[in-house]
Design a protein that fits this description.
The protein has twelve helices and nine strands. β6 and β7 form a beta hairpin. The protein folds into two domains: 160 residues, 3-Layer(aba) Sandwich (Rossmann fold); 88 residues. It is α/β, with parallel strands linked by helices and 260 residues long. The protein is 41% helix and 18% strand.
Length: 260
């Protein structure tokens, strides 16, 4: 389902779609929970394009991106075959490749994508020497969480291959529509409570009182669902507070209950 955005946010999603339509690689920048993955899905839906995803981590290697060799029995004979990975599948099918948290990948892994991300849209697979040329419609959307634990600065040559859009936390009417669309909570007063909580969480994040992942839309949706079977305070405790590591952050959020 396409999220209904307010004017400012609708302009953002329109720009994102048009950037991809132009054949530009799109970099989505923003903290956890600002809807980067959802926006990527919306773009693919709008363009009626299939999407392949890569979730980056320090363990990401070339095989995770391009694929791997394996042994299969074909007509009774064992043969070595190559299983295409998400990058090659997206290129061959003219699909969208979504690279999540691209700045968590080791710097030495990503240069393999340089020729894929520039005007060449081409790759020589080092595992089988196949030359892969991207089909029409292929494009790349990547997402980064700047300053997040485990991330590394992106190489300048890599950044220059993207057009960037910065996402902020959603709030107000936009958040209300998301909670209505994506949670099972229907009580309007409870939804307003959650919007107020989100407003206070974002303020605390900006003041560096709590970590940014606390103000996640995913966590708010979980809390809304839990509110259908338990009181507000307990729902927040289960969906947000209990996941935190420091007592200081936990107590800071518990104190918000009185304000709400």
């Amino acid at each position: 389902m396409m999220i209904k955005y307010q004017n400012r946010d609708q302009q953002l999603i329109d720009d994102a779609i048009n950037i991809v339509k132009l054949g530009k690689n799109l970099l989505l920048k923003g903290p956890t929970g600002t809807g980067k993955t959802r926006l990527s899905e919306n773009i693919s839906d709008s363009l009626s394009a299939k999407q392949y995803s890569v979730n980056c981590s320090v363990d990401l290697d070339a095989e995770s991106l391009l694929g791997f060799k394996t042994i299969e029995t074909i007509d009774g004979v064992q043969q070595i075959v190559f299983i295409d990975g998400p990058v090659i599948k997206a290129m061959k099918e003219g699909a969208i490749l979504y690279i999540d948290e691209i700045n968590m990948a080791k710097p030495e892994v990503l240069p393999i994508l340089n020729s894929v991300l520039d005007y060449r849209r081409k790759l020589t697979n080092p595992f089988n020497n196949e030359v892969v040329i991207a089909q029409k419609g292929f494009n790349v959307i990547a997402a980064i969480n700047e300053g997040y634990v485990g991330t590394m600065p992106m190489n300048e040559a890599l950044v220059n291959r993207f057009v960037a859009i910065e996402l902020k936390y959603i709030d107000g009417e936009t958040l209300k529509q998301v909670l209505i669309d994506q949670s099972i909570l229907t009580d309007e007063q409870d939804i307003e409570k959650m919007i107020k909580l989100n407003e206070l969480l974002i303020k605390m994040v900006s003041q560096h009182q709590i970590s940014e992942e606390v103000a996640s839309v995913r966590a708010l949706i979980d809390a809304c669902d839990l509110m259908t079977i338990m009181p507000f305070e307990r729902a927040i405790e289960r969906a947000l507070v209990s996941k935190l590591e420091t007592d200081r952050e936990k107590e800071a959020i518990r104190q918000l209950f009185e304000l709400i």
